[in-house]
Amino acid sequence: MSKHARIQQLEQEIAPLKAQLLAHPLYKTVRSISDFRCFMEQHVFAVWDFMCLLKSLQRELTCIDVPWKPVGNASTRRFINEIVLGEESDIDEQGKVISHYELYLTAMREIGTNTDQIDKFYNLVCSGVSVKTALKQVNINKETTDFVIFTMDIVGSGETHKIASVFTFGREDLIPEMFIEMVRELRTQGHSNLTTLEYYLQRHIDIDGDEHGPISLRMVEELCGDDEVKWQEAILVAKMALQNRIKLWNGVLLNLVQPLSI
Q1: How far is CA 48 from the centre of its chain?
Q2: I want to staple 143 with a disulfide (CB 3.0 to 4.6 A). Which of 11, 23, 171, 251 is the partner?
Q3: How many DSSP H helices and E strands does the chain contain?
Q4: Is there a contact between 124 and 140 (Cβ–Cβ < 8 Å)?
Q5: In 3-state terms, what secondary structure has residue 73?
Q6: Dihedral (C-alpha) 237, 83, 105, 244: value to the nearest 10 degrees?
């Protein structure tokens, strides 16, 4: 079976889960500014752990050591470095250099979202506390905790084909457009403090454009090669990533009915 055929097989395997994710009732439930605040309090942890996925790929697929030497496929190196540039050193509406994580926090504060839990978690991790220990010390949904733990377990595996599969197939590409529609709906309700949030979502659509999708697929093809075990593992972790995302959304949806006390 060719590598292209294997990618097609992988996409067919995960298609039901992706369809379930894209049809999640959360998107029709988030309708007020308070709903979006509730959503962002949990989702920000996924914004942070995405950077861990990305930086682990940069560590494995490019050279970050001295003395320097070219590593792996040049197109893959360029792809990873471009994503890192866009995620870690993008520009905001005023042209200030900022990471997407920091931009997301700015958007949270702009609409009055409580950042106490993500701030506490971040400070704990920066002080040397392990991610899993830090997660136990913050008051967030179990589904959010499980989502981050899954990501960090994949990163910690050091198995690049698994990391690349979760990065490529486990992080949804169509959902930001749905969120932009939500933000526009909020604007019709008279909310005007949504500029940074809308900008953040639009930047993700721009960065995840037509060019990056095919390159990420080629990255998975390259890393799995002709190894049947790696292809099966890539399918498995992609499914697990989507399942954890669905559970993350389930937790947020439940909060909208039974708010988490923070």
Answers
A1: 8
A2: 251
A3: 13, 2
A4: no
A5: coil
A6: -10
Q: Tokens 């669905």, residue?
A: 246
Query: Tell me: the pLDDT tens digits for 100-109?
Result: 999 999 999 9
Query: Would the CA dihedral through 254, 40, 20, 5 be positive or negative?
Result: negative
Closest by CA to 151, choosing from 65, 222, 248, is 248
Q: Residue 224 in contact with residue 161, Cβ under 8 Å?
A: yes
For the segment 143-148, the average pLDDT, to the nearest whole number, is 98
The model's pTM is: 0.91
Decide which of 100 and 204 is more confident: 100
Q: Is 74 exposed, middle or buried (0-12, 13-18, 19+ CB in 10 A)?
A: exposed
Beta bridge partners of 90: 98
Q: Which helix (H) or strand (E) holds 179?
A: helix 175-188
For residue 140, give the 3-state DSSP assignment.
Answer: coil
C-alpha 107/C-alpha 260 separation (Å) is 21
What stretches of the chain adopt beta strand conformation (E)? Answer: 90-91, 97-98
Where helices occur in 62-141 by DSSP H, the ranges are 74-88, 100-110, 116-126, 131-136
Average pLDDT over every residue of 115-121: 98
With CA atoms as reference, report the closest residue to 236 among 161, 145, 125, 130.
Answer: 161
R_g over Cα of the chain: 18
| Phi and psi at residue 159, to the nearest 5° | -95, 105
- Specify the amino acid at residue 63: C
Q: Are 176 and 204 in contact (CB under 8 A)?
A: yes
